[in-house]
TrEMBL record:
GO molecular function: electron transfer activity; heme binding; metal ion binding
Pfam families attached to this UniProt entry: Cytochrom_CIII
Protein name: Cytochrome c, class III, conserved region
InterPro entries membership: Cyt_c_III, Cyt_c_III_dom, Multihaem_cyt_sf
Amino acids binding heme c: 45, 48, 56, 59-61, 101, 104-105, 119, 122-123
Required co-factors: heme c
Superkingdom of origin organism: Bacteria
Residue ranges of every copy of the Class III cytochrome C domain listed in the record: 36-123
Phylogenetic classification of the source organism: Bacteria, Pseudomonadati, Thermodesulfobacteriota, Thermodesulfobacteria, Thermodesulfobacteriales
Coiled-coil region: none
Length: 126
């Protein structure tokens, strides 16, 4: 009988965590960018939100570059950051990510010494 109650309790806890995870639209837990020859980048999206307190608007923005606001549709970065973009410094997802992610990591390096800033620290070859 004890095993049944432990199983039921486990199911309840699991469903509670699942409900919490899907209750807010926080995006995916992990995002993977295929880096070709350089290697794959695994971005821990939820960890940056929850553990580091990074707000959506610090990375996501509208077409007019206004920071993300609640309810704004988040599109793939490549919708704007592509070869057609006038700003040649940001005309690819790679350039946008390097500017935003690497730039942020350099800023927080004193507080978070493990924040990767070198190519091989983010781009992992399989």
């Amino acid at each position: 009988m004890k095993k049944v109650w432990v199983g039921i309790l486990g199911l309840i806890v699991g469903l509670a965590f699942y409900g919490y995870a899907i209750s807010g639209d926080n995006g995916p837990e992990v995002i993977t960018f295929e880096g070709g020859k350089k290697g794959t980048v695994t971005f821990h999206h939820l960890k940056h939100q929850k553990d580091y307190g990074i707000k959506c608007g610090e990375c996501h923005h509208g077409k007019d570059h206004s920071p993300y606001k609640e309810g704004m549709k988040i599109q793939k970065c490549s919708e704007c950051h592509n070869k057609d973009m006038a700003n040649k410094k940001l005309n690819s997802v790679k350039k946008a990510m390097h500017k935003n992610c690497k730039g942020c990591h350099k800023q927080v390096k004193d507080k978070h010494p493990n924040a990767p800033t070198k190519c091989k620290e983010c781009h992992i070859k399989k």
